[in-house]
């Protein structure tokens, strides 16, 4: 399959971001990624003003982030704004679906930070919903804010930005695994990029430029056919991959995730991430990584197999929902969260 790297959940000057669509596109090309999913707050102005499409070698796709106080929802493949309804997020999900759109719950368990963010935590408060495409399981900016609980920590994490980014939080993974027990739910990653400046007076460095964030938590998609440079052909392919879960989340700053594979086979039938497979005698799982890592295979929300290396092959006779977590060894010997795959659904 053809692999492409994209950065999702990005804001521009059409809402509270500090860069134009054109600046975002230039940053994407400089960072070496292939596409960007823009989601300005409660507006599709960028789409309506014709900004969607190829900008050089970067494909810009425009959706919106629906929500003000809580229950934020990322929507793409939509042509008109969906009204926010924080007390009834099901109405938002339905509004996106009624347009043929895809939607993802954003930063569901984020923690607020009063140092520059007014202490607000834009959480997802209602899990009695259905019909959403998936969940953003790992958000760079959202996670970075969480540990900043006093001025000393604010200074520390300002200069050591990577230290706060430890992987999807346990509550999000638990919510995802619970949802997977009921049906297909796609995981994506995002950065919530705004290109904010921090500080006072003339000294206001841009701590998280678009280019910087585009090298961090990305969503890698797998396509049957290569992108062509034609928006009308390429846009449906990207959205179809996201909708089907033909993708994985990678913290590319630890090492490029390009080349990661997770597939399964039973008898003569093969499945990739996001696919279903009917078990017939036994299912053979193959995991390949571009560089060595500790790999954990999760089955139905619980660890099933674990090992270290670039190639992992295991066989199971049990149906279940199988997904991959990979942890990369740092120079200090610690393992850091790196790759989180979408599941393969093995049905009885």
Describe the structure.
The chain has 348 residues and is of the alpha+beta class. The protein folds into two domains: 2-254, Metal-dependent hydrolases (TIM Barrel, Alpha-Beta Barrel); 261-347, Immunoglobulin-like (Sandwich). It is 21% helix and 36% strand. It has nine helices and 18 strands. The chain has helices at 21-31, 45-48, 89-97, 114-117, 140-145, 151-159, 170-180, 210-213, 231-244, and strands spanning 2-10, 35-41, 53-55, 58-66, 73-76, 102-105, 134-139, 186-190, 217-223, 247-251, 261-266, 269-272, 276-278, 283-299, 302-316, 320-329, 335-341, 344-347. It has an 18-stranded mixed sheet that branches. β11 and β12 form a beta hairpin. The longest helix has 14 residues, at 231-244. The chain is globular and about 65 Å long. The protein starts with a strand and ends with a strand. The mean pLDDT is 94.
What would the keywords be for this entry?
Immunoglobulin-like, TIM Barrel, 348 residues, single chain, alpha+beta, 36% strand
